[in-house]
Design a protein that fits this description.
This protein has helices at residues 2-19, 38-51, 62-67, 84-93, 122-128, 135-153, and strands spanning 23-25, 29-34, 55-61, 76-82, 103-109, 115-120. Strand 1 (23-25) and strand 2 form a beta hairpin. Helices cover 48% and strands 23% of the residues. The chain is globular, with a radius of gyration of 16 Å. It has one domain (33-153): TATA-Binding Protein. Strands 1-2-6-5-4-3 form a six-stranded antiparallel β-sheet. It is α+β, with helices and mostly antiparallel strands.
Length: 155
């Protein structure tokens, strides 16, 4: 069992690296390198969401919040967004996935000044919530998140 899980993890990482050296994948999160600032990337992402008819529930600027209490934090923002046409069928497969919905995208700058867009890996949500019989929904979410991320982070 452990060997099978390790092979799956290693295969996923190799697959991710083979298609882009600007994407970091972990078991639970996918991070895409951006060639713009945190604000520019988040602005692009939000604009694309609106153009695609997705609902933007909130945008949180953690950097500004930190500054309001005289603390420093590298640029860090979160956009909370979703679409009930996709989220509802997922929740019908597993009610507990609602704790991870609506979707969130994190825009952040690392210690070297590189900007990233990160989001929950839908495959991780599938495993976390033991979602069965919803592969088409998981695949659709994966595709949409990938498309949104690439569009928001490209030059």
């Amino acid at each position: 069992m452990i060997k099978k899980v390790m092979i799956k993890k290693i295969s996923y990482i190799i697959f991710s690296l083979a298609f882009s050296n600007s994407v970091l994948a972990t078991e639970s999160m996918i991070s895409v390198e951006s060639h713009a600032t945190v604000k520019q990337t988040a602005d692009r992402f939000e604009k694309i969401l609106e153009e695609k008819g997705l609902t933007v529930f909130a945008r949180i600027n953690h950097g500004e919040n930190a500054a309001s209490i005289n603390l420093e934090l590298a640029p860090t923002e979160v956009i909370i967004f979703g679409n009930p046409k996709v989220g509802t069928p997922l929740m019908q497969c597993s009610k507990t996935v609602a704790i991870d919905l609506p979707q969130k995208a994190l825009f952040w700058e690392d210690n070297q000044g590189q900007v990233w867009l990160s989001y929950n890996n839908p495959e991780y949500l599938k495993e976390r919530h033991n979602i069965q019989g919803c592969d088409p929904v998981i695949n659709k979410i994966s595709g949409v998140l990938s498309m949104l991320s690439k569009a928001a982070t490209s030059k």
